[in-house]
Amino acid sequence: MATVNGTPISVVVADKSPLVRAGLQGLLNEDERFELLGVAENGEEFMTFVERQPFQVGIVGWVMGGMGGRGVLDQLRDRPDAPRIVIYTGDPSADIPRQAMRLGGAGFCSKSEPPSQLLDSVARVATGQMIFPFVDVRELHSYPMSELTPRERELLAALSEGRSNAQLAARFEISIQTVKFHLKNVYEKLGIGNRAQAVALYVSEKE
What residues of the chain score a pLDDT lower than 70? Predict the structure, then answer.
């Protein structure tokens, strides 16, 4: 039995679909390698389990109501006791594994794969392995910027100069609300959560 130090691997599941949650709950409960500690329907609920008790692996959907997989990974990045995260999604976008890896995820599994592959990935991740489909590591850092529109790039460049939202609105002749809307899109595309992170990423791209 593939356990860690002779004990079952502790797991928490987060997915927007009740059917997926029920299916994974059944699979994990039937497999002696694992101990299912909880099931959540979004990232916020998943994080309550993180705060409540330590566990080894999270199986997390990419798109959920409220906080999705990207938000979970961002929340966990600076936590030394963070569980390892396997992103489990039906989204066919080839960029999701790349984003998950860049944000500190430990693995990725498509819902189109057999459930046994997901369980094997969780077991291997718990032992310290990283499980991803082929990802061109040269693109891990630079690719997110390519998702930005020309206006969003201009806004980010101005942001790096230390301009306030009011100054950005005046410079681009748009409302402050429109500035906030654009910045929200920039943060989401870059997989970050605030202005300081956006500026740091922009500056690192220019070095």
Answer: 1-5, 134-144, 146, 204-207
Model pTM score:
0.67
- Residue 2 belongs to a domain: no
Residue type, 166: A
| SS3 track for the chain | CCCECCECEEEEEECCCHHHHHHHHHHHHHCCCEEEEEEECCHHHHHHHHHHCCCCEEEECCCCCCCCHHHHHHHHCCCCCCCEEEEEECCCCCHHHHHHHHCCCCEEEECCCCHHHHHHHHHHHHCCCCECCCCCHHHCCCHHHHCCCHHHHHHHHHHCCCCCHHHHHHHHCCCHHHHHHHHHHHHHHHCCCCHHHHHHHHHHHHC
Cβ–Cβ < 8 Å for 33, 62: no
In CATH, what number is assigned to the domain containing residue 105?
Answer: 3.40.50.2300
Output the six-digit token pair for 80: 């030394």
Indicate if 180 and 105 belong to the same structural domain.
no
